Amino acid sequence: MKTKHTFTSYVAKATLYLAGMALFVLTVSFPAKAQEANKDVPITRQQADAILDELRQIHHLLENLLQNQARAAAPEPLPAAKGSLKMDGGYILGSKDAPLTMVEFTDYQCPFCRQFETATFGEIRKKYIDTGKLRFISLNLPLDIHSNALQAAEAVLCAGDQGEFWTMRDALFRTASKLKQADLLSYAQGFHLNMSEFGSCLESSKHKADIQKDIQKAASLRMSGTPSFLVGKTTADGVDGYIIVGAQPFAAFDAKLQEILASK
Hints:
- The protein has a six-stranded mixed β-sheet, sandwiched between helices.
- Helix content is 56%, strand content 14%.
- The radius of gyration is 21 Å and the shape is globular.
- It has helices at 2-28, 32-36, 45-73, 111-119, 121-129, 149-160, 165-174, 181-190, 195-203, 208-220, 250-263, and strands spanning 82-86, 91-93, 100-106, 134-140, 228-234, 238-245.
- It folds into two domains: 2-73, no CATH class; 82-263, Glutaredoxin, CATH 3.40.30.
- By secondary structure, it is an alpha+beta fold.
C-alpha cells in the first residue's frame, strides 16, 4: 500500500542518514595526516566521548522522526482504556485532596518524557495542579533500552530522601543526555545534598525495590512505553480513570480532565 511504502522508504532514508552521520563523525575525529598515511591512531577518551554524544543526539533525532511518521500513518486512536490503582507511595505534587489524580510513569532518558515535561506539563500545572483540581504523582518505568534510566530513577529517589525529589527530577529532564553516575553526583552536589548519604544511597541501590513496585504497577495497567499516564477521579485509596499513552499535547489531557470533572 502507498502508506506502507512511504513509511518504509522513510525508515530507509532515516537509517541511511544515521549511518552517514556516524561515518562522518568517526572520520572527522581522526587527524587528516594520519588518514593520509593510512595508519591507526589511538583514539582519546575525549574524542570517544564526543563521538558517542553525537551518535546519541542522532539517535534521539531518529526516534522523534520515526514516531512522528508512525503517528501520521496510524489510524484514529481507540477510546482510552480504563484503569485504576491503589496508591501506597510516590511523591505528590498538588493538593492531596484534589478531586482529580494524574499518575505518570516516566523514564528520565526517554526523549518523549522530556517532551511532555518541557511542552505540556507546565500548562497542566498552571491550570489544574496550582488551582487545587489535580494531584500529580510521578512513578518510575525505566526502559531496558535506556542504559542510564534505572540509575537516574534511583538518583531522583535518593534526592527525595533529602527533600529534593522534584528538584532532581526537573534537573534530569533538562539534561537528559548527561545521566552517568558522575553527572548525578554533580547535580546532587549542586543542590547541596549530604553527599555521603546520597552517594551511599546510589551505590547501594537503596530504592531498587521501590522502582520495581512502580514497574509492577505499570504492568498491571498493561503499560510498556513511556510516558504513560493514568488520569481519573481521586478515590479513597488511589485513582480510577483512563490510560493515556505518549507525549500528548495539552489539549488531549485538558479534554480528558474536563470530561472527568463534568462526570462528577
